[in-house]
Amino acid sequence: MLFNSLPFIGLFSFTFLLYWLLPQKGRKPLLLISSLLFYGYSGAAFSIHFLLVIGVNFYFSLKLWEKKREGKSTSRLLIWIIVLNFVNLAFFKYFYFFLDSLDFFTNSLKFSEFGKGFHIPLPLAISFYTFQLVALQVDIHRDHVPERISALDYFLFILFFPQLIAGPIMRTTDFLPKLDKPAIDFNRVQWGVFLILSGLFKKVVIADNISGIISGIYQHPGEYNFFSLYLVTFGFASQVYCDFSGYTDIARGSAYLLGYEIPENFRGPFLSPTFREFWGRWHVTLSTWLKDYLYIPLGGSRGGFWRTQGNSMITMTLGGLWHGANFGYILWGAYLGLILGIERFFSGDPKKEVEPRGWKRFWKVALIVHLFAISGIFFRTGVAGKDSLRLAGEYFGGFLNFIGGKALLRWEELAVFIILTFFWNAVQYYPRIREKIQLRFRWLLPAFSIIILLLMGIFGDGGGEFIYFQF
């Protein structure tokens, strides 16, 4: 069920109106029912599988709490829980990639031919809910959740429908303490509505229209000229940002209207002067998950420079693999890890760094956003599966077409959408801009609502699926 669809509008409107009419004891069951309807829209089989996964994890969580209460070690049980969750993820998401990899290394086609004999569908949101479940189990092991969570709260924590399909990846501290104390007032309603409208604007007006302009170029990128490929590189980075940031804006706005505040997932990353800061602002909940549950357990930065580099490279490469089951995504993650390593090598102590200003800051921001945009070539061509590396090579080869090659149609529109993307990054990056918007809500929000709805009517095409739904 897409956020930018009538079924979601109907479900959320019904839930919102009934939610605030019910006493507190009736609100959580209503949210659970609405969440089940939201996920069930994707199919009964996926829903049954998802509920079984949560049920199994809840059973093991009870065992963890029981061992904690008895003073016994939970390490071995935790390992089994993590293995089971990742085996479930690997079977549905990486089975065909595993067969293709065997073909690649054995120089044959027999493994992929074997895989064609049956179809393994990818359950919706499996990557996101797997990470959220694993984080919950690890937090119980680490005594961050000392008290047992009720079955209702446990299921609702995982199923909460505003953030279910594509995050943010919540921690227990983000949601559970607030579950019995939803809070709403006029300011929260205004901010929630603003977030929903801004999310729809990013998705329907910017991201979907960028997709229509640039999608054809990825079929034969080597046929286009340098200028077209250069602009499309930034166009795709803008599309991903607006698509995913738009989703999380709608998720956060919906949660606000239900009385909860869930984590912000984007904080204006395109205006970051360092790659380290960029990853503190891009897909924040995934970045912190990878840091807390992979990078630090590997040793973090405690083993010297090269050990730190290795841990960072492993973390970013596996983060790329989490996004998709092919070599394009792995290269994307490895490329990002390499850039982080190079930056770490040439920079000094981050605690002693002076914030760059003026033109120095401008050129640093320009460098970082260029490096990230280039990584999007691996990410976008990764959608092509087996052809991802070939298409990425064609794309980079097309940068040599300074004179010949096709020109991109509607490049002027694309340039406008890229500029609008940087405007939204500025709103997220600079708190003062956000504060000024909030101070002028009384007259700004009605005008903003009318403008957004008009633009959606002009540019909207019925709404495309969100990019991160495939992960």
Automatic annotation (TrEMBL):
One of its GO terms (molecular function) is acyltransferase activity. It is found in: Cell membrane. InterPro entries: Ac/AlaTfrase_AlgI/DltB, AlgI, MB_O-acyltransferase, MBOAT_fam. Belongs to the membrane-bound acyltransferase family. This is MBOAT family protein. It comes from Leptospira sarikeiensis. The chain crosses the membrane at residues 5-22, 42-65, 77-98, 118-139, 151-169, 189-206, 321-342, 362-379, 414-431, 443-460. Its main location: membrane. Keywords: Acyltransferase, Cell membrane, Membrane, Transferase, Transmembrane, Transmembrane helix. One of its GO terms (cellular component) is plasma membrane.
